[in-house]
Input
Amino acid sequence: MSDPESVPELVTLHVWRIAPAAVGRALPRMAVDPRRLRALPGVRFGKLLGTGTGTGFGPGDADLTRWAALTVWDSPAAAARFADSPVARAWSGLARAGVRLDLRPLTSRGEWSGRRPFGAPAGGRGTGPVLALTRARLRPTRALTFWRAVPPVAAALHAAPGLLARFGVGEAPLGWQGTVSVWRDPADLVAFAYRHPQHRAAITRTETQRWYAEELFARFEVRDVVGDRTVLGWVTDDGDPAKGERA
Output
């Protein structure tokens, strides 16, 4: 088995869209499938995640018709077997649409559940689309000030040049949340992360307010997108939803 904190060759993000009528069957899966995902051969780290719009992080932001699995693999061969696993078959059976993103870690800072799941990548900008992942566990005493700070940053992100997709992710309805955003190229991500005033102000407040008990920030090269991109809310370069677009 690989060093659990070495840089993985492949990380996958599976996202499924289910019908509202299937929500009652999806919720019990969230109780049993996280453990089953982590137990699959070749899985170094795995999280089954709920999603939201990304405009806030309270229960009202949750999207119960979209679910995700983030998985760090020992090898591409192990990842290729996921589609035949009980976890994948269960979610594919519930889904009316799905998409898989194949990712290569570029940078990663912080921890998730006490681990560094993406190791310590050497850096680099990558080529083509990049995905940014943020994940945090809030300090309960700081949650209210954090939630109040989210809307201005979310509004700025929505209008950011080069943004292809964005949504919230979380392991629980409250206090354990993050964001996924996909950008046309690294320059667009850097421009928003380090130059946009709303985001820079949020970074400063993160340091002074001590919102997080644990946090992780990672950036990935998007190597492939397979499936229905509309599940991600993907937007084409001309600003129109990429309805039915498949890689």
About this structure: Residues 196-201, 238-247 have pLDDT under 50 and may be disordered. The chain has one domain: 10-232. The first helix runs from residue 23 to 38.
